[in-house]
Amino acid sequence: MSRKVILGFGISLDGYIARRNGDLDFLTIDNEGESAMADFFAGIDTTIMGRKTAVGWAKMRQSGEIPDTPGMVNYVVSRRWKPGKRDGFEVVNGSLTALVKKLKHRKGKDIYLGGGGELARSFLQEDLVDEVYIGVGPILLGDGIPAFPGKFPQRDFHLTECKSYSNGSVGLRYERKRKK
């Protein structure tokens, strides 16, 4: 079985991944949500994220909101940070296609592309996303950082999973439809 790149994040009903200031306080995770996330991350051994997401991830790890993940390889794609090791991440720049090709040729579990925004757009532009996993929270923010900034070609997906949770959230999983 081939490794997949899975784009995953939580959003508001109106499609925002964070408030304008980057705050994620509207995303509530209860025991049921924690269990779903643990199941999801059991199939992941590599993460790719942008610089801003990595900074937030590191803060949440330090505060205990995200547990340490021994054996997880974490990449940060950044034009600002110098390539190399940094705070538990491997900072990379250059071709996303080359990075994904290299990672997919390694043995292992799936690859998590964390967060929406500019990095998600770049991965979608280069057609590197195999699945999309979205947790939709029952809130309208009215403003914030959009999950999918425009300017990428249409990409078709089909629904493979839809779960509702007791807090009113919904988990949606889509697989990329590719021409054979």
Protein architecture, described:
This protein is an alpha/beta fold and 180 residues long. It has helices at 31-41, 51-63, 96-105, 118-125, and strands at 5-11, 16-18, 44-50, 73-77, 84-86, 89-92, 110-114, 131-136, 145-146, 157-164, 170-176. The two termini are 17 Å apart. The mean pLDDT is 89.
Give the CATH H-level superfamily. Dihydrofolate Reductase, subunit A
Q: What Rg, in angstroms, do the CA atoms define?
A: 16 Å
- How much helix, percentage-wise, in residues? 10-25%
Task: Return residue spans where pLDDT drops below 50 for at least 5 consecutive residues.
Answer: none
Succession of helices and strands: EEHEHEEEHEHEEEE
Number of domains: 1
Outline: globular
The tally of beta strands, per DSSP, is: 11
CATH architecture: 3-Layer(aba) Sandwich
Q: Return the CATH topology.
A: Dihydrofolate Reductase, subunit A
Beta-strand share of residues: 25-35%
Strand order of the largest sheet: 5-6-4-3-7-1-8-11-10
Kindly report how far apart the N and C termini lie: 17 Å
Please report the number of helical segments: 4
Q: How would you classify the helix and strand content by structural class? A: alpha/beta
Mean pLDDT: 89
Mind sketching the topology for me?
Blueprint: E1 5-11, E2 16-18, H1 31-41, E3 44-50, H2 51-63, E4 73-77, E5 84-86, E6 89-92, H3 96-105, E7 110-114, H4 118-125, E8 131-136, E9 145-146, E10 157-164, E11 170-176
